Write the structure tokens for this entry.
Amino acid sequence: MKILFATGNEHKVTEAAALLGPLGHNVKALIVDGASPGFVEPQADGLEEVALAKIEQARSMVIGTPLADSAILVEDSGLFVYALDGFPGAYSSYVERSVGLDGVLRLLDGSDDRGAEYRAVAIIDLGDRTLRASGVCRGGIAEGKMGESGFGYDPIFIPEEGDGRTFGQMSAEEKSSLSHRGRALKGLSEHLKSPSK
């Protein structure tokens, strides 16, 4: 199946292709008029609401084009910091762009609770039906940035199931085996392997 991933983040496309490619799916970035689509993000606290809004926008962009019959994949994720009542959550990419990792670390100055979790929701629109899956990766926020790999909050997030390194210190394969996005995409892959209901 040809799956168009509606994202401007090439790292996400690579991760999805690595997980869904072995099942025979061809994952490519959705390109409309020569560029990644720009979405109007709803002001919503829930990841699923944001992902569903992006699916609707992406589907409307391909109506009447040769891409109209393709499956469309959207994933939305966020970092939920316990001491900050779940902030930045669904606003994670905006917060990263506006205050950066240093700003998030400053918010935790003096806090004994550095617990956090990454959450992801992945939705694939097959035209006649929509499949969804979610994934969670629990862990904590490091005292400072460590590692150059990955993207987003990876240099400050230490997964609970890891060996004490941040996602930013791990290879793409190591991160994918633990990550929220990897888990959500694996959940989608199980739905795709199941016979249609």
User: Anything to note?
Assistant: The chain has a mean pLDDT of 90.
